Amino acid sequence: MLLEAGASIKYVAERLGHSNMEMTLNVYVHPTDTMKKDGMNKFANHLSLALFYVIHNHKIIFQKIFRIKKTRKTTTNCRGFS
User: Fold this and answer.
1) How far apart are CA 82 and CA 72, in angstroms?
2) pLDDT tens, 18-49?
3) Residue 36 covered by a domain
């Protein structure tokens, strides 16, 4: 319950009188439904942020390419030569 509420494993181990956190992890820690949902939400948020970052950067790159092409078109003379 303490871990599900956000307490650190170190605190829980000390509360239970365990000499190290490994014992607490081996005996008491198992993912609850709430912990699974929280983990899935964190993963989904991280994935959506990563996807946004990729899309945003590609958009910036495409905009720069478009501006370069647009600039080149405006610098050509009436015969189409640079």
Assistant:
1) 8
2) 888 888 888 877 777 887 888 898 988 888 88
3) no
